[in-house]
Structures are given as C-alpha cells and as structure tokens.
C-alpha cells in the first residue's frame, strides 16, 4: 500500500467539493473526485496539477455505483482510501406545499440516502487504513435549527448530523473518525440556483435580501482539513452557522422567535 494519503470527494466538480479537493491536493494528498458533471471534474483535475487526481462519474443515489467508484479509486491510489468526503448535495427551498414529489424525493435521495450509501461503501476501505481514517460528511447550518422555507433540505441535513453522531460511536472501536461540516451560506454555484422549480428567485439574492453573510468557500476547505485531523465531531463554518449553534444551545427561545419572524419561505 502507498504511503501517500488519499481522499475521495463527492460533488468534486465544483463548489465545496472542488475546494476540498484542491486543498488536500495542495498538501500532498492523492485526490479522487466523484460527480455526474464530467466537464466540471476535468476542470477540477486541471487545477490540481498532473498526477494529483482521479475522477469517476457516478450517481451517489445508486449503491452499486458507489462500490465501483471506490474500487476504481483504490486501484488508482495504490489500494489506499484514508478519507471519504461525503459532500454531494443539492439545495431545495420554498414552502413545503410548493415542493413537488419529484423535488422532495430527489433531495432526500441525494442528500440523505447518498450519504448513507457512501458511508456503507467506504467502511471496509476506511477500516483498512485505520487508525486515523475519516468519514467526513457535509451537513449544514440548516441541520442545526430548521430553516423556514427549506423544510426538506433541513430534514436531510439534520439526518446527516444524526448519521455522523451514530457512526462516530459505531466505528470508534475500528479507529475510524466520523466528522461533519456545518457551513452556512457558502460562495459556490449552488447559490445561483432557483430555490425550487416554481420560483424565479435565486438563492443568492434571497440570502442578500435577508442580510446574511456569504462565506468564502476556502473557509470550508480549511475546516475540512481541521476536521479530518482534529477531534471535533461537528464543525460550524461561517458567522451564521456559529451564531445559530450558540443560540440553539443556550438561547433556544430567542432562536425560535427569530425563526418565526423570518419565516417568509425561500422562493416566495
């Protein structure tokens, strides 16, 4: 087995996934990226530099494709997978009654089932490279306290936090770390999407109108590095996430009132 550490990042064609991939590649790691966007993955690889990366097109919703993707990456990395960054995810906003069945199922499948399938598929590889290997799940500030106008998305990110806590206990004896990132609004292409199919309002504009900050994506990559190498179970990223985590723990009544006051759903 190679002595060079290896990380596989889903959603690596852009945004947070790309930033994590570049950050780890810049520190000597061999990096694999998985996504459905082949052109985006090629761009990420070109930014890494020759010999630093590997790409594999697959759908995180398909359990069998997870096995194929990780096996292919392990072959490229000389049999080593130290970290799986379970990062692939999609936004969904708007009032619940506006969300279609197809939108709800797609968000649940990618953001929640995809994380579970990734953890399940990665387990034998992470156990082989333990101690010190890590499952790193991308959750969200929306998984700290439910966000009005994003009930489905919030549900998935609460689920990711729960998966992280469960597997932190389940895999402890195997020497595998399990961690989550809880970012607030991060400056990635996802902010330029509409909140849902019935809305013409972009997420970025909605965030600006609400007076919330947009955090540089590099801060998430740095937090990912620290999470993999540290002992903190959940890592908040960005002012909004940090304030929400503090308030939810120590001032829950205040957070509840603020949430109700800001309850104009995304997309209305």
UniProtKB/TrEMBL annotation:
Keywords: Oxidoreductase
Organism superkingdom: Bacteria
Gene3D superfamilies: NAD(P)-binding Rossmann-like Domain (3.40.50.720)
InterPro entries, per the entry: NAD(P)-bd_dom_sf, SDR_fam
The family this protein is said to belong to: Belongs to the short-chain dehydrogenases/reductases (SDR) family.
The protein's name: SDR family oxidoreductase
Lineage: Bacteria, Pseudomonadati, Pseudomonadota, Alphaproteobacteria, Sphingomonadales
């Amino acid at each position: 087995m190679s002595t060079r550490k290896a990380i596989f990042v889903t959603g690596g064609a852009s945004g947070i996934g790309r930033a994590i991939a570049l950050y780890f590649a810049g520190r000597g790691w061999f990096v694999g990226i998985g996504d459905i966007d082949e052109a985006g993955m090629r761009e990420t690889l070109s930014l890494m530099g020759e010999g630093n990366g590997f790409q594999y097109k697959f759908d995180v919703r398909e359990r069998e494709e997870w096995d194929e993707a990780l096996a292919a990456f392990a072959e490229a990395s000389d049999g080593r997978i130290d970290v799986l960054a379970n990062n692939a995810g999609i936004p969904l906003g708007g009032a619940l009654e506006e969300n279609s069945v197809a939108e709800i199922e797609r968000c649940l499948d990618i953001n929640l089932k995809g994380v579970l399938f990734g953890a399940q598929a990665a387990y034998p590889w992470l156990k082989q490279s333990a101690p010190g290997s890590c499952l790193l799940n991308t959750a969200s500030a929306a998984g700290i306290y439910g966000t009005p106008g994003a009930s489905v998305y919030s549900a998935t990110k609460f689920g990711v936090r729960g998966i992280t806590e469960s597997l932190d206990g389940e895999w402890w004896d195997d020497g595998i770390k399990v961690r989550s990132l809880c970012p607030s609004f991060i400056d990635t292409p996802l902010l330029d999407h509409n909140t849902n199919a019935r809305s013409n309002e972009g997420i970025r504009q909605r965030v600006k109108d609400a007076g919330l900050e947009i955090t540089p994506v590099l801060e998430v990559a740095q937090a990912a590095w620290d999470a993999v190498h540290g002992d903190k179970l959940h890592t908040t990223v960005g002012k909004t996430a940090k304030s929400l985590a503090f308030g939810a723990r120590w001032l829950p009544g205040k957070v509840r009132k603020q949430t109700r006051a800001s309850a104009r759903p995304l997309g209305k």
